Structure prediction request, 250 residues.
Amino acid sequence: MDYHDREAAYRAAEGLNQSALKPLRKSPLHAWHEANSERKTSPAMAVGTLTERLLVVPDDVRADEVMEGFTPAAKVKALEAARGAAAAVRASAKAKAMRSGCEYGIPCYWEVGGQRRKALFDAVDTVRHRIVDLKTTSVDMTRGSLQRQVATYDYAIQAAWYMQGYAAVHGVVPEFWFLFVESAAPHAVVAVQLDADWLAHATDEMETMAAVWQQCSEAGVWPGPAEMMADSGKLTLSRPTWAPTYTVGE
Prediction:
């Protein structure tokens, strides 16, 4: 089974993935809606997908499939960004060493308490027990910016989820690395690990989310934000300190 076939089989396979959990931050209703809506690819997501495909199957990236609905100009821009990012990853000695010996687009399936779970590894080395996940980004490659990126997009949840799946299948807790590459020139590349405290917090959080998902699935009830509030969605708002004040003559 080739790279694209493995990806298609993974998408069709039964099981909860970490992406489905993230909308629970809004409410179970939002999570249900996301899971049952047609997946739309943003320009940023397209650059990430194309970058990985250019590194693995450069002769068959299926760009039109990735950028369905994009304007011709947007397609050119995304593909140009992905080519630059992929070239930078190939040229990076650190990235090359980390990805050496890896297999790409490898699905992982396991169970926790009867709940079927799944993950799709960008790159995995079962000899060195290492998972490497590629992330294209538009933020500065500074510690603070990358911390915000990880926190904003719940990348810690992804890391903890993937590590759990690998350990369940292989019996070993793997290293997990994010390989960040700038989507715009000069396409700097940085390898990032999360510390033990962050991963432990993410593990607790993902299990709480997975339990909520399971409860809602079994009950067939997906409450919205109002139902999740202690006061049944009745809010009293106070004027924020930053609200503008009208002053005559200003």
About this structure: The longest helix spans residues 196-219.
